[in-house]
Structure formats: C-alpha cells, structure tokens
Amino acid sequence: MGTISDLLKKKSTYIFLAALIFVVILPLYSSGYVLRVMITMASGIIAAMCLNVVLGYMGYPSLCQNVFFGVGAYTMALATVKLGFSPWTALLLSPIVTFIIGYLAAIPFLKLRSMFFAIATLAFTGVVSAVLVNLPKITGSNAGLRGIPRLVKSDVTFFYLEIALILVILVLTVIMSRSFWGKILIAIREDEDLAPHFGINTTRYKRLTFAVTSAATGVAGAIFFSYQTFISSNYFTIGSSFTALAVAVVGGGGTALGPIFGGLVVVGAPEAFRGMSEAMSLWRPAFVGIVLVVVILLSPGGIVGIFQSVTGYLKKRGEK
Amino acid sequence: MAELGKPILEIKDLCKNFGGIAAVDGLSFIVRQGEILGLLGPNGSGKTTLFNLITGVFDSDSGKVLFQEHDITNEESFKIALKGISRTFQSTKVFPFQTVLDNIAIAMIARAHKRHGHEASQRIDKVLEFTLLSNVRNARAGDLTHAQQRRLMVAMALIEDPELLLLDEITAGMSGEECNEMIEMARKIRERGITIVLIEHNMRVAMALSDRVLVLNFGKKIAEGTPGEITTNEAVLEAYLGREEA
Amino acid sequence: MITQVILNAVVETAIYVIMALGLTLIFGVMKIPNLTHGAMYAMGAFIHYSLIEWFGVPFVPALFIAALLTFGGGAILERVFFRKGGGSPVIAIIAGIGLTYVLVNVITNVWGAWPLRIQTPFRHMVKIGSGSISSHNIVIIIVSIAITVLLYGLLKWTKFGCAIRAVSQDREEASLIGVNVNTVGLVTFAIGTMLASIGGMFAAPITAATPTMGGTAETMGFAIIILGGMGSLGGAIVGACLLGFVDVFVTSYVSGGWGGAVAFVFMIVVILIRPSGLFGKKGRQI
C-alpha cells in the first residue's frame, strides 16, 4: 500500500514508535506510585481526547465531561457491587448507559451556543453532583462504594489497558478528522448557521458526536474506578470537571495528539516537581491554573499550536 | 427571452412579522423553470427575509412555499438544500479558516454518493474553473479578495447541483469589471437549466440579467413585469424615489 | 419557625444581591462571564480576616480597606487577563477557570484549608416574631440595600455611569463617541470584583471562611443573573430574591443537600426556555 511506505519515510513515525516502545517498557521499571500517576494521567488523557472532539473539533465548550466519566464509573460500580455482574460485563454496559444519558443530555443542551452551553453543562455537572451526594442508598455518597472488582489483576496490565484505549481513540479520532464527519464538525464549529444550507443535518451530527464521546469517556471512567476498586461522589464535583478541560485546552484543541501533550503537562509535570520538593506539590493546582491561563491567552492552539507555529517559522527561515 | 417552463417555485400569501412590523406581507408569486427572476425593492422591503423564509432560516407566520409542487413551508434548512435549492448570502458567508477546496468539499458533503473519487474531483475542478477560482484552490477562504469570496459562495452553491439558485446581491462590492464577469456567469448558469432568483441593488446587473422583475415594498408586491415595464412603473418610481413631486 | 426561615432567606438574598450585582455588571459591560468571581468572594473574606488578625485593624475599617484592595486586584486581573473586549467568551471562561485554580490554591497555602472563624462585632440578637436575627445580618441587609442604591445612582446620575451604560449597549458606538472603553471595562470589572469580595466578607462570619467558599456562591451568582437576565441589574435583584428564597426554603424544609441542585435546575431550565432571562433582552444592556 502506498500509505505504508509513505509512513515509513516520515520522521514522525519513528518518533511515535519510539514513544510507544518507551511507554510499553516504562511500567515494568516503575514504582507503584509512579504507575498510579501514569494510570491517572492516562484516564485524564482519554477524557480530554473525548472532550477535544466536542470542544476542539465541534466548537462546543463542554464543562460536564466528568459527568460521563462518573456515569460510566458508577455503572461499573453498581453493576458489579450491587448487581453482581462481572467487571467485563459491566465494562460493556458502561458505554451503553453513558451513550443514552449523553444523547438525552445532548437534546436540550446542544440547542445552546458557546457561553450558554458552557454554563448549562456546568450546571448539569452541579445537578448530577448533588444527585450523587444525596442518594447514599444508591451511590454510597461521600463514603462511597467499596469492593469494585478489578478488570485485570495487576496495575501494569491496567496501564496497558488504558494505553490500548488511548491508541484506539487516537486512531479513531484521526480517521474521523479526515473523513466527512470531521469536515462536518469543522463546518459546525466555524459557522453552524451556514452548514445546513449545504444539506448538513447539524442536529444529528452534534448529538451523535456528543453521545459517542460521552460513551468513550464512560469507558475510561469504568476502567479507572475498577482499577481503584473504590468510588465516592467526592470525585465528581464541579471543581473536578475542569481537569479534562485544562488538559484539552493546554494540549491544543482540534488536534488528535493535543490531549496527550496536555495530559503530560497538566498531570505529569506537577508530579515531576514532586520529586524535587514536597512544597511543589502544594502548588500543583496553581501550576495547572497558570499553565491554563498562559496557554489560552498566548497560544489558544495549545502546545500543539506552539509546535505548529515553531515548525512553520523554521520552515520559512529554511526557505530563505 | 428564455422559454418559460412550469412553475418551479410558488409563494402563496406568505407573511412574516418581526416585532409587529410586517417584513413580508401576503406575498404571492410564481417562478418559472429556467427563468431569471429579478427581485428589487428599496432597503428593508423584505427581499432577504423572503430568501430566509424559502430556505428555512425563519419560519413563516402564515402562507405557503411550494417547490416543484412539494410544500416546503417551514421545512428545516438542510432538507430544503437537499431538495435542490441553493443560495448565496448578502454578507459573504464562507468558512474563512478553511481552504477553497475544503469549503467546496464541505458544500458537497451531504450528497454521499458524489463525495469521493474521480468523478467528484472532476466536478470540483469544473466548478473552480467556472467561478475563476482554479488558481486559488489551496488558499484560505478568508485570505481571498472580496470578489473571489463572493464567487466562492457561488461555487459552493453550484456544487450542490441545485435546481433553483437564490442569489442575494451577489455583485455587492464588486467593480464594474467583476460585475460583468458575474453577469456572464449567471447567464451560463441559466443555460445549464438552473432557475435563478436574484436580489440586486445594482440596476444595470438586474436589468441585464432578468427575464422578469418583481418589485417589493414594505413586504408587498408592488409591480411585476419585464425590466422595460418596471422602469416606467409609477409605483416603483415612488417607492424608490419617494414622493418628491407634490 | 417560618418567620425564622424567612429571615434567613432575606439575609441570604442580601448577600446574593451584592454578588449578583457585581457579576451582572461585569457581564453587561464586558460581555463575558466572570469565572473569578467566586475566588474573589473568598479572597475578600481572607484579606479581611488578615487585616483583623495580623494587623489589628478593627472589623469595619478592615472592610473598607479590604474592599479597596480587591478593587485594585480586580483592576489588575482585568488589565492583565481579561482585556479581550469583544473577544471569544470561551477564552475568558477558560482563563477565569485557570485563575480560580491559582487563587484558591494561594488561599489554601497561605491561610490553610481549615474553616476560619471570623468574629463580627455585631453580635446582638434581635427578636422578630418567632424568629431572631443577629445585628450582623441586619447590617448585611442594610449594606445590600445601600449598595443597590449607590449603584443605581452611579449609573443613572453620574457621567461615568452613563459611560458604563453606553458601553454595555454598544461597545463600538460608545468608543466612536469618545468613551474610553478600556477604562470603563477596567473600572467596571474592579467594581464587580469588589462587590464579590464584600459579599464574602459579610458571609464569612456566618459560614466560616474556607478557600472553596466561592464555588457555590459563584454558581449561585450565575444562576441568579441568568434567571434575571444577564446584564440587567433589576433582574439580578429579582433573581437573587427568587433563588435566595427557594434555596433557603428547600434547605430548611426538604433537605440540606438539594438547595444547590435546585438552583442549577432553575438555571438550566431558564437557559433553555428563555436565555435572556426575566428582564434581559438579546444584547440587553444595564
């Protein structure tokens, strides 16, 4: 196939493969704590990749990502702990339940634009958060539910599971962005009122995109809390809804790889600081906040945007 | 004069109010297959609102819009576009951050069987050539000149293979030379069998192109006829010039 | 019992009025939702606390000093981070989120995460009917009314107030007739931030000061101004009354946890049915 030999010629393919190998080997040499951080980071990356499709490609600033993370997680938790399903069955249920809820939420919310959409999704997070806290019989509220069975035994395998999921979503995102679906999302993002005049059923594509990304986020949630074996409503407050946003924005909206870089910076970097000094870990949220502000004001395209401007600049200089 | 065919678009008693003001007020007329119908009238007479009603941007308060004998009143925009009505806009609407090619790709995306392959790229090449945009195919739409952007709108409308094309002041902001190019283009479009309704403020263009002219004022039809008949019509003169004579 | 609930509701409404006025003012002029409002609400309380505990400033003068400080702080925030003008609100939202992270973290690290008790000098309890209300709360109500009147006066009768109204109606037109749009934005943002912090300063003795105290307040604030119409002062007051009463009644008679959720549901319903709120119009000005 022409494309494979093309791929072999590009430098980026080799960098990618090297990174892949590094990522695969890394957990075998990492301490339990580092592994934990990486698994958390991977979850955040997956949630951000899904948010990235809705925010970066479609142009809808959703602030309720962690609702779907939670729906998937609670499906896993309730299905296994209360209904006795096996974790893999629960894992299959999670995206289905999340898809349904995502689609139902999409119907009213996607009628809104920009700022109102953002605020409505924020309020939605608040409502769901309150529901989770105030129904202790079902959700265990703050005390939580224990004893969620693990999908796989070891931490390392969990990490591989998440890497696999990241790769799958990455590939799907790239395929999507190059296909008609990607073009429709771009049309919606750039001028949603213009798109229907070309026969594009914006409503249908918006809802499907929102629901599908929600489902994927739900899967990530299910996996993470299976790893954790414990869940509580503390994880799903309004405050926590912003991590996915930070990762998506910092990495660069509308690019497939963006959220990966974002995750490395937002989650990974502060942890790297931890090694240097205990004090640094106290300032982690501030760090995230500063990075977020700096990125959004100076380079709304995120890290990938910076990368693109730099390579663009270098190319121009090379041409002189 | 072109041959007059069956009615392709029929407007019946169409009404649209905005906050108590009638933008379109009991409007009725017919557009025949293959003709070029000019839509004239002073600013605010309801012409663009009419286009918006036809293409589903607004819902009408009452009345009917019939396209090829199907009732498309208050249909959703995307369905109307798929049925074969395309339009351009008074203020340039394209996707500014996408290339010309990508703009056209978006415009044709809804018609699945024509999206890919050799046939598709041939059609794209033809449309670009027709609208004099071949040499800027990879430029960002936002970087084009004003006239080029207006022609891009036409290209995007044409790639959908419409039966009816609505042009809203397509020559706005164009030089005399560019207007002539547009007149040529419109004539060739009609030769392909596409019916055109055009809103124009540029009288020269309107009169040169239109087979028939409809004049609106305050959302009502005040005159209908050939360009020649219209220019001498009392009501039309009054609408445009105001009551100057006592 | 019901008298007490009503009294509580009035107090809560009073605090929310102060917060919401600031929020709606900022939105009306700058067309962006200010997501640092909650953080500054908290910051106000903590600065006030520090002035009292570290510098020995008495309660009331400390209020004024802290208010001035947060006014300045708001001005700095606007100048450095929010001078986007008619820019995309999404950028402002994300910047606001980031700044909140930073501010809350600063508060946590400087003052600690434990709730701080702040003593108010107004400790007298007044009996009204079957309920009682502390003089502190009465002061809140008075201050709230005073701020409303002052703000109204500012907008109606001063030159600067005219400028504010002009910019909130049409930014471009205003700059064309010679209004310094940037200064108006700066001062408005500063005023709004100051109002948020005043709300926090008065709320702290009641609820104890925590770094995250601004979170619910801010979301309530948004619920209020969306209900009342973003950019409408009258709407902010009406919205504050409505949601303040609903919140307190739900909390008192139904259950503690659901008060916030009710506000959110209100918010969603209003956004869906009538995004311009009770008193707003599309592009509505102050």
How much strand content do the residues of chain B show?
25-35%
What is the H-and-E element order of chain B?
A: EEEHEEHEHHHEHEHEEHH
Secondary structural class of chain B: alpha/beta
Strand order of the largest sheet of chain C: 1-2
Structural class of chain C: mainly alpha
Number of domains of chain B: 2
**Compute the gyration radius of chain B: what is it?**
18 Å
Q: Which spans of chain C of ≥5 residues are poorly predicted at pLDDT below 50?
A: none
Describe the model:
The complex is a heterotrimer of chains A (320), B (246) and C (286). Helices cover 76% and strands 1% of the residues of chain A. Chain A is an all-alpha fold and 320 residues long. Chain A has a domain at 33-238. The mean pLDDT of chain A is 84. Chain B folds into 2 domains: 1-84 and 162-246, Rossmann fold, CATH 3.40.50; 93-161, no CATH class. In chain B, helix 3 (100-108) packs parallel to helix 5 (146-158). The longest helix of chain B has 16 residues, at 176-191. Chain C is mostly helical and 286 residues long. A two-stranded antiparallel sheet of chain C has the order 1-2. The longest helix of chain C is centred in the first third of the chain and has 29 residues, at 2-30. Chain C is globular, with a radius of gyration of 18 Å. Classes of the chains: A mainly alpha (320), B alpha/beta (246), C mainly alpha (286). The interface between A and C is large, with 39 and 41 residues.
Q: Which descriptors would you attach to this protein?
A:
heterotrimer; B: 246 residues; alpha/beta; Rossmann fold; 2 domains; 6-stranded mixed β-sheet; 9 helices; 10 strands; 35% helix; globular; C: 286 residues; mainly alpha
Reconstruct the topology from this structure.
The complex is a heterotrimer of chains A (320), B (246) and C (286).
Chain A: H1 2-9, H2 11-25, H3 32-57, H4 65-81, H5 87-109, H6 114-134, H7 136-139, E1 145-146, H8 155-178, H9 180-190, H10 202-228, E2 230-231, H11 242-251, H12 258-276, H13 278-282, H14 284-298, H15 302-319
Helix pairs in contact in A: 3-8, 3-10, 3-11, 3-12, 4-5, 4-10, 5-10, 8-9, 8-10, 11-12, 11-15, 12-14
Chain B: E1 7-18, E2 21-32, E3 36-40, H1 47-54, E4 62-67, E5 70-71, H2 77-83, E6 85-87, H3 100-108, H4 117-130, H5 146-158, E7 164-168, H6 176-191, E8 195-199, H7 203-209, E9 212-217, E10 220-225, H8 227-231, H9 234-241
Parallel strand pairs in B: 3-8, 3-9, 6-7, 7-8
Antiparallel strand pairs in B: 1-2, 1-4, 4-5, 9-10
Helix pairs in contact in B: 3-5
Chain C: H1 2-30, H2 37-55, H3 59-82, H4 89-111, E1 125-128, E2 131-134, H5 135-157, H6 159-169, H7 171-176, H8 181-207, H9 213-228, H10 233-254, H11 258-273
Antiparallel strand pairs in C: 1-2
Helix pairs in contact in C: 1-5, 1-6, 1-8, 1-9, 1-10, 2-3, 2-4, 2-8, 2-9, 3-8, 5-6, 6-8, 9-10, 9-11, 10-11
